[in-house]
Amino acid sequence: MHGSIGLVTLVVAVTATTAALACTPNRPGKLQMGRTITINTAGGAAHGSVSYGETQLLRDKEVVLTFDDGPVARRTTAVLNALERHCVRATFFPVGRMAMARPGILRDAVRRGHTIGAHTWSHPNLRRIGLARSRNEIQKGFAALEAIIGPRVAPLFRFPYLAESKRILAYVKSEDIASFSIDVDSGDTRGYGVSRVVRSTMTHLRRRGRGILLFHDSKLVTVRALPQILDRLAKEGYRVVHLETKSSYRANPDLVARYRRRLAGTPARVADRR
After folding, report:
1. Topology classification of domain 61-263
2. Looking at residue 147, what is its pLDDT?
3. pTM given for the model
């Protein structure tokens, strides 16, 4: 079985470490890193109230920033720059084929200290395609990411559209992968304008007081709204919690080798670095 290495118990270990980004921390008016939570994913775990009940990871006024569906040239880099201006780190759930098209952006995210989970190879609704195809989508997604960044892919997975099934969730758990749903949806895929995305995010977060926030680095509205959201989080006293895992996920080695060969034959794009 492919999966995360060296884990035998399902625990969440919390450490009070702070971010170590190439920025100036503790600047007035800037959002700050709080704790780093190190997750042991052995046996699978599930977090996020939309799918799994109340999030137990977080304390009041703590948020986890998560981004799906990238990387996208310029947009993902703009998101990375906004996060770095606030000295905070996030968790990204890239789509495998998108990452293969822009590998340099994914490497940049890792270089800046962000955590990389997986979001399938092509973003299908897994409820609609059956278990065998779902397993293939999940494995291909993890393999593509490993081909790009090596053994630094966290055993974290987010279902596209948050659409899971018991059988697919059981498979994910059997691979020692933690499933991450959300607590607060920014609404950035609903056709909202910038002001509504900002308002929706903050309104729902204030009601909950804490949570895993969902954004999409593939969306231009996210690029435009994120600096305002980060500023408001700072002003209202929220702290960003960074997720790490006790191990990396090791995908099917034949798939990883296949994607590495594909990358080796692909000329580097200037857009990868933007």
Report:
1. TIM Barrel (3.20.20)
2. 98
3. 0.89
